[in-house]
Write a structure and sequence with these properties.
Shape: globular
Distance between the termini: 79 Å
CATH class: Alpha Beta
Radius of gyration: 26 Å
Helix content: 40-55%
CATH architecture: 3-Layer(aba) Sandwich
Order of helices and strands: HHEEHHEHHEHEHEHEHHH
Number of strands: 7
Strand order of the largest sheet: 1-7-6-2-5-3-4
CATH topology: Glycerol-3-phosphate (1)-acyltransferase
Strand content: 5-15%
Structural class: alpha/beta
Length: 290
């Protein structure tokens, strides 16, 4: 007990520490009043770097998969059908994939993902994960969890080197999942296709997974950039013949070939190299052993 009365831990010292803490909290409160003008000596405000998101592996496990099936079949697909009366051409290419594939589509609006998932067969949809921009959808943890549950997303980095692209994608493909990617990297403001980023070509070159080109027409009218609520408008999705990396073909050259295929689908091309011949489509729908 002698230490308590020695002056080192007395009542006056405790009161002094409490007063000092109160002063510190008062200073901190002034710093958190962001609505006031910022002092000139402060640096410009900038968004904090979010924590690196996980690959949301829980979204691909039970009972989450069953819950997502109910949400998509009971809510998403009927609503999508009622709003867009979706027309799908070339659905044979995604009816029964015999190995994991990369689905590469143009990007017009936030309505694209529900529409593209609607265009897939049930068997393919259940084995498809969607690349969602890590710097957009995962800045807020709750939003990231919601889209992970609803659409089976995984964080996809739009910046950085090839390793950032391969970090989760390669493992998902090896695990038997199809990847739905938007190679443009961002949404178009007028429905026109932008230049494809080289990530899709690099991923296909490294994994040897086939790439299925897909073109969405009309979704920019359903949910234009900046629009919070969907509007009714007709949408058409065209699906092309799977593309594979040729011997000696570079990743950038393959990316260009995928981009050209998506553009030709949007232009209505019926060439066998783009849309496939009738015999190719018949083979794609032939029954495969389970």
């Amino acid at each position: 007990m002698s230490a308590w009365y020695s002056g080192r831990y007395g009542v006056s010292q405790l009161l002094g520490a409490a007063a000092s803490l109160s002063d510190d909290l008062r200073v901190m409160r002034r710093g958190f009043r962001w609505s006031r003008p910022r002092p000139r000596s402060w640096p410009e405000a900038s968004p904090a770097i979010p924590d690196r998101p996980s690959n949301l592996g829980w979204a691909r496990m039970e009972p989450v998969r069953s819950l997502r099936f109910l949400i998509q079949r009971g809510l998403m697909m009927p609503f999508t059908e009622a709003m867009t009366h979706l027309q799908v051409e070339g659905g044979e290419w995604v009816e029964d994939l015999d190995r994991p594939a990369i689905l590469a589509a143009n990007h017009n609006s936030h309505a694209d993902t529900p529409l593209l998932l609607h265009a897939l067969s049930q068997r393919t949809r259940e084995k498809t994960v969607v690349a969602a921009a890590a710097d957009y959808w995962y800045r807020r943890p709750l939003l990231g969890r919601v889209v992970g549950l609803w659409l089976n997303t995984f964080p996809f980095s739009r910046t950085g080197g090839p390793q950032a692209v391969l970090s989760s994608s390669h493992q998902l493909l090896k695990s038997g999942w199809n990847l739905l990617l938007y190679p443009e990297g961002t949404r178009s403001s007028d429905g026109r296709i932008g230049e494809f980023k080289p990530g899709v070509g690099f991923l296909a070159t490294e994994t040897r997974a086939p790439v299925i080109p897909m073109h969405v027409r009309g979704s920019h009218r359903v949910m234009p950039r900046g629009q919070r609520f969907p509007l009714p408008a007709p949408v058409t999705i065209r699906i092309g013949k799977p593309l594979e990396v040729r011997r000696g073909e570079t990743s950038r050259a393959f990316t260009t070939r995928v981009e050209n295929a998506v553009r030709q689908l949007g232009a209505g091309s019926e060439e066998a190299a783009v849309a496939g011949s009738w015999i190719d489509k018949w083979r794609a729908t032939a029954k495969r052993p389970r």
